[in-house]
């Protein structure tokens, strides 16, 4: 009987070690993928900044200087955004990120994002802020709710070349459900289940760290909600996330 238990324990230990080894291999693969991707994503805007910084100093025409300065500013913004994402991810995974709660009027937050993204939307696409509750005020972190919605809107703008993008929120009992619906390229079936994991990208040729949706998931969970997507390739996507009503 004792020997039987020893064999069972040994088998269990061996299985646990094998599972730990597999997880370590997956983590190592993700780390290498992240480093390779970030190496490329950082070098691209950095090369533009260095190159156009040299050109702007030698440019004699004001129009040329203005254009080079615009390119430098744009690529500097890309770099800062990527570093912010990495820092946020680190803080969320270590549990050190704190929410700065305040009274948030959700209709104002959505309108602020509309005014920003309507200028970025492709000419053949209509951005629509649907009718929302103008009176709803909650206690939450304005910047983090805005960060999640902005990330979803940014993706919708990036992957939608025709049709429309609708966004807004609805309430049911004590739950707020936000949504961003587009008529873009959609998400391949094999990626839908993993799209919120780190470093997954719908299109590897589109610039970005691949951390955006992972940050959305972690931030929404931090705020007490859930996030999910409904999508069909070539038919568009609808991203949803919920937050509790904390008045």
UniProtKB/TrEMBL annotation:
Source taxon at top rank: Bacteria
Taxonomic source organism: Bacteroides graminisolvens DSM 19988 = JCM 15093
Keywords: Kinase, Phosphoprotein, Transferase, Two-component regulatory system
PANTHER family in the record: HISTIDINE KINASE, TWO-COMPONENT HISTIDINE KINASE
Coiled-coil spans in chain: none
Reactions catalysed according to its record: ATP + protein L-histidine = ADP + protein N-phospho-L-histidine
Segments forming domain Histidine kinase: 37-247
Molecular function via GO: phosphorelay sensor kinase activity
Record-linked Gene3D superfamilies: 1.10.287.130, Histidine kinase-like ATPase, C-terminal domain
Name assigned to this protein: histidine kinase
Pfam families: HATPase_c (PF02518), HisKA (PF00512)
PROSITE patterns, per the entry: HIS_KIN
InterPro entries per record: HATPase_C_sf (IPR036890), HATPase_dom (IPR003594), His_kinase_dom (IPR005467), HisK_dim/P_dom (IPR003661), HisK_dim/P_sf (IPR036097), Sensor_HK_Regulatory (IPR050736), Sig_transdc_His_kin-like_C (IPR004358)
Signal sequence, start to end: none
Enzyme Commission no: 2.7.13.3
